[in-house]
Design brief:
The structure is a homodimer. Chain A is α/β, with parallel strands linked by helices and about 350 residues long. In chain A, about 45% of the residues lie in helices and about 15% in strands. In chain A, α11 links the parallel β8 and β9. At the A-B interface, α4, α5, β2, α6 and α7 of A face α4, α5, β2, α6 and α7 of B. β2 of chain A pairs antiparallel with β2 of chain B, so a sheet runs across the interface. The first copy, chain A, binds a DNA duplex (30 and 30 nucleotides) through α2 and α4.
Chain lengths: ~350, ~350
DNA sequence: CCTCTTCGGGAAAGCGCTTCCCCAGTCTAG
DNA sequence: CTAGACTGGGGAAGCGCTTTCCCGAAGAGG
């Protein structure tokens, strides 16, 4: 009818004709159908012809005929953030081992965009969609997401979440709260007394959980509440700005906990720029244990999350056949004390 | 015929029926066809029905009918490397502004896999494919890639390269050689005399160009050739190992140039672990100016590449209509001297 | 008042596959 | 030797869209 493209692309029909077999046989020879054998000599002839013509099946057409595609959709907040690129890396490893492709979409931390991307992946008939960005503390957004995912599953798709288990969907739960609590406990043991928390925006549950978990941890071991809590952007520059704010306050903490490593690095830079030293003047701790950041000086105390593995778990999970109850896999971070928080005295 | 999936998904036909119009009209109402107007009241009715039913067009079916998709394929060597995730970030920005999706594939620095991924994107009928990984110094691989891309273009697809301009294809050329040369020159001016080069594997042209450019630069200003050249993996750990090797040699350089920042950071770590200090005992310089690495201490002298912008340029380029001659856009890095290479004396 | 356009709705033809269904040819068994 | 059971090839339906083509209705022109 239309075909505006200048495409003289080779199709399965061309292969079949050139090999002197029917379309059906060519298809079966190339993909090995379950119900029917193709005589070896015919199969060979088809395969050779296909290779000779550089035949590449049209994935869209296959998807239409089969009803599903070979792509996994991944939704992240910001792919330039090493947290997400590590997860992507794991997702790609998992996908690769199943012969799948991964399509990435980023939300810029907007719940609306997240929803749009999920809808778009539904349109793409993605085999599965993985939502790796932290949930938002916004019940309306969650409701919308729930509805969208219901549609997706009705259409035969699958979904999995990372971080918070808020909907009846397969989830890899990162125990941000408990992990931050352990960190707080260990830091108190090291002798720290006056804490500040450098948090991200409240609507991001990951930030909230880490900050609150940390404070809970302080209380649990009888340490006082933080002397300061700054809220800033969930980025290096946010960490920088928040730290400037914290250092400007009259009573300076002896340790600042930033809710992620990227912010912690910003905080350390701010400290240096104010003429102070980490950890002599203020100690700093982060969260995530981002690989690229392991060589900052002083080495950062943090909570290690197996980010690449998380990506792989998510793929495995979302590729399993559905079960009655949603699966939940809990991952606890491992506290890693380094030189940015030496024992006091 | 089959439809094994339990899909009771809503299709355009459902929308048309529910709205009491024909399939054709529903299609035109939703996508606004070029040749025919739809009466406003009908359009409204269709649009409302579609929204009410949560209709999401099947992208595969649209792709089949239209002959092209809304996805851009991006091929990188290793997405966990911040070099590539920055580029991906730019590509995603560019794609987003055109309403496109991006699918990522990674090669693990294998030419064979690169070729497979391009073929796979051809099968996906990707609107365009961007090859962001450095070319390999392997004429056979290049030949294969050329053939594959010819097929891709015959099928109506488009392709663009980053880094080296080796094939008659739109390319964003990174002037690795010239930039490394400038770096060498400036370093000599700072007073350095005894250089070592920490290179990646030879078969990666990016590594080769940077290393050779640097050496050319040394010669051009009358400095002697490097006292050592180590070849190592193109990663943080590669940088570490290569540095250990360099430091073990009897005559120690006063400056080590690592062909990328990630290796440079590994090199600095190795230096520290040997009980030496940067820059007092050895100065270190890198290449790329990776954002996440800007806060290492001492701050790294490097060559800044606008990585995110490169991603955007590539998208713009590959979305332009074809021209007779392939477009080439050259990008020169900017030398940034920081404290890892202070002036000597 | 009739013919010539223009407008816009609907039927139907594909797009490139997979798989169902029919069928001829072979085997096996009675 | 013939009926029943298998094999495996090929025709054709159908996946969900877009767009061409046909057509009746409404408006313009004489």
């Amino acid at each position: 009818m239309m075909r505006s493209q200048s495409s003289d692309n080779v199709t399965l029909k061309d292969v079949a004709n050139a090999a002197g077999v029917s379309l059906a046989t060519a298809s079966r020879a190339i993909n090995g159908s379950p119900d029917r054998q193709v005589r070896p000599d015919l199969r060979m002839r088809v395969l050779e012809t296909a290779a000779r013509l550089h035949y590449q099946p049209n994935a869209q057409a296959q998807a239409m005929a089969r009803g599903w595609t070979d792509v996994i959709g991944l939704v992240v907040h910001d792919i330039a953030d090493p947290y997400f690129s590590s997860i992507l890396s794991g997702v790609m490893q998992g996908a690769e081992s199943h012969g799948l492709l991964v399509t990435v979409a980023s939300t810029g931390r907007s719940a609306t965009k997240e929803l749009q991307h999920v809808a778009s992946f539904r349109g793409q008939r993605a085999r599965a969609v993985i939502l790796a960005g932290s949930r938002f503390d916004d019940s309306e957004a969650i409701e919308g997401l729930h509805a969208e995912i219901a549609q997706l599953e009705r259409a035969g798709g699958r979904a999995a979440f990372l971080s918070q288990h808020l909907l009846p969907i397969d989830t890899v739960v990162v125990e941000n709260r408990a992990s931050a609590q352990s960190l707080a406990r260990q830091l108190v043991e090291l002798g720290y007394k006056r804490f500040a928390v450098l948090a991200g925006p409240d609507r991001l549950m990951t930030s909230k959980d880490r900050a609150e978990g940390f404070m809970d941890g302080l209380l649990a071991v009888g340490a006082g509440p933080p002397v300061a809590v700054a809220k800033a952007d969930f980025s290096r520059d946010g960490g920088y700005d928040g730290m400037v704010e914290i250092l400007a306050s009259p009573d300076r903490p002896d340790l600042v906990f930033a809710v992620n490593d990227v912010m912690a690095v910003g905080a350390m830079a701010a400290t240096r720029d104010q003429g102070l030293t980490v950890p002599q003047d203020v100690a700093v701790a982060g969260f995530d244990d981002i690989v690229t950041l392991r060589d900052v000086t002083p080495p950062l105390t943090t909570v290690r999350l197996p980010l690449v593995d998380l990506g792989r778990y998510l793929v495995e999970m979302v590729l399993q056949p559905r079960e009655d109850a949603p699966r939940v896999r809990r991952v606890r971070g491992e506290v890693i004390i380094r030189e940015s928080t030496p024992p006091i005295r």
